[in-house]
Amino acid sequence: MELDKKEAETVSKAIQFWEETNKLSKEQAADLRSSYQLRNSNVDAVAIYALISAISCGLLAFGALVIDEKWIETLRTKWGISENIFGIAFSLLSAFFVFLAKRRQIKYPQARASNEAYNITIILTVAIAVTYWTRSFSDENSNYAVPLFITAVVYGGIAVLLHSTLLWTVMILSLAGWWGAQTYFWSDGGFRFLGMNYPLRMTVFGLAIWASSWIVQRINSLKFVREITYSIGLFLFLLAAWTLSIFGNYADWEGWKILKQGHFWYWAVAFTILLAGLLYYAFKNRLDTLRDLCLIFFLVNIYTRYFEYFWDRTNKGIFFAILALSFWFVGRKAEQWRNKTVSQ
C-alpha cells in the first residue's frame, strides 16, 4: 500500500504507540511497518502541476476559439445558420462529452483529478448550448435569469450522473447567479426584493444552500455532494453576511456613500456575535470546516471594522501589535485546549 507523507506519519505514530503499550509485539509492529510504503510526492506534484497547466491552456484555447463570437457570427451570416442549429450542435457535443466522461470514469475510477478536469469541457459546452437555445426563443425584454436556471438544472443532473463535485459546484454558483438576476427581474429592476437588498438576499441564499446539505445527506444519490454543498453554502452565507455588515439593508448606493459607517454599527455587531456563536459551536463539536471558515471571516471582520472605525484615529503600529498579541493569545489557548482534549 502506498501512503502520502502525512498518512505515513499517522500510521507510524499509531504503530509506535501500540508497540509501546504492548498492544503489538515487535514482530507484529515490524510486519505492519513493512506493509506500506511512502508514495513519491514529487511525481504527484509534477502530475498535478501538469494537469493544472493542461486545464489552463485548454480553457484559453476554448475561449479563443468558441467563446469569442466573432467567427461564430461570421459563419452564421455567411452560411445562414440559425441560433437553433448552434444550440443543437453544442447540445450534441455536450452529450458526447458526457458519454466520454462516463466511459472514462468507469475505465479509470482512480483518476479522480483528471476525470474532474475533463468535466470542464462539459461545463463550457453546456453553457454555450443553453445560451444559443435561449437566445433563439427570447427577445430583449425576456427574463435573462431563465438561462441561468436552465443551466443550473442541467449541471445538477449531469453532476449526479457523473458523481462530479466540480459540476455540482458550478451548479450552485449558477443558482446564485439565477437568484440575483431573478429577484432583480421580480423587483422590476429595483434594488429591493421583499424589502431585502442584494447582500441580504444573498445571505438568505447562502443560508438556504448551507441548510440544504442536511437534506442532501439523506438522499442516497446525493450523499457524495454533502460536504461540498455544506462548505460552499457556508462560505456564501458568511461572505454575504460580511457584505451585509458593511452595507446593511441599504439599497441606495449614493445615499450609502454619504452616510458614516457608524450608522450600520448594529449590523457589524450582529455579524460579530454570529461568528462568535458559530466558533463556539464549531470548537465544542469539533467541526473543522465550520471552525476554519469562521476563523477566516473573524479575521476579515476585525480588519474591516478597523478600517471602518479606527483607520484615521489610532496609531497603526500600536493597533497591529495589539492584534498580533491577541491572536497569539487565542492561538496558545486553542493549542492548550486541543492538547487537553487529546490527552482525555
Automatic annotation (TrEMBL):
Keyword list, A-Z: Membrane, Transmembrane, Transmembrane helix
Keyword Plastid annotated: no
Name recorded for this polypeptide: DUF2157 domain-containing protein
TM region(s), chain numbering: 46-67, 79-101, 113-132, 144-162, 198-216, 228-251, 263-283, 290-307, 313-330
Residues in the signal sequence: none
